[in-house]
TrEMBL record:
SUPFAM superfamilies in UniProt: gpW/gp25-like
Location of region: Disordered: 28-53
UniProt source species: Vibrio tetraodonis subsp. pristinus
Protein name, per record: Phage baseplate protein
């Protein structure tokens, strides 16, 4: 599949396209896409709240659910491990994904 980077207009394919789609799904609030109310994630709902161990677990759960939501079109990526570290009043997150048999770690 071939896609277009929404920021630069460059052509994307393979892993770059899959990661772009994942980034977009994670940043889109669930229920806000007009023709597909099941697209997106609850991750944006976590933004703006002070970091806490409880909030960290909620964030990790929401990231996993985003990757498993079939409406997000992320079937080619499989989230293996989500790491969320509390830094100051926020989080540094990374996701280890599997794409075509290889594993990659990306910052979210």
């Amino acid at each position: 599949m071939i896609g277009v980077d929404p920021d630069t207009g460059r052509m994307l394919k393979g892993l770059s396209l899959a990661l772009s789609q994942a980034s977009r799904a994670l940043a889109t609030p669930l229920g806000t896409k007009e023709k597909d109310r099941n697209y997106g994630s609850q991750v944006p709902d976590t933004l703006g709240e002070p970091a806490s161990p409880h909030g960290r677990m909620i964030l990790i759960n929401r990231i996993f659910r985003t990757f498993r939501n079939p409406n997000n079109g992320l079937q080619q990526l499989k989230a293996k491990k989500v790491t969320a570290l509390i830094v100051g009043t926020g989080y540094h997150t990374s996701v280890k994904v599997e794409y075509k048999g290889s594993e990659y770690e990306v910052q979210v």
